[in-house]
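Hello,

Our lab assistant flagged a job as stuck in the queue for most of the afternoon. It eventually completed. Since we weren't sure the result was trustworthy after the delay, we are filing this so someone can double-check. Below is the sequence as submitted and the structure that was eventually returned. Let us know if re-running is recommended.
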Amino acid sequence: MERHVGEKAKLVGEEDKNIPSFIGKLSIMLQDPSAAPFVSWSPSGESIVVIDPSTFANQVLPRYFKHSNFASFVRQLNLYGFHK
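-- returned structure --
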């Protein structure tokens, strides 16, 4: 599944709502089977698991964001209420 992610990303099945770009891109990334070996929801569905942060940063992040900085990704997660 290849998608071009713009400034106003839409969640699959969502109407045109004001979804923050980061959250929209995160949702699309977590639904992308090609990203699954590197990032996914935990079995409980309550957290996000990054299997190999280095590979994730270099191969997955640039497909969805304008950077490959894992620390910046974590800061954005924290901003939206995700914590270790």
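-- support follow-up --
The delay was a queue issue, not a problem with the job. The result is valid. The helical segments are 21-31, 53-64, 70-79. The chain is about 40% helix and 5% strand.
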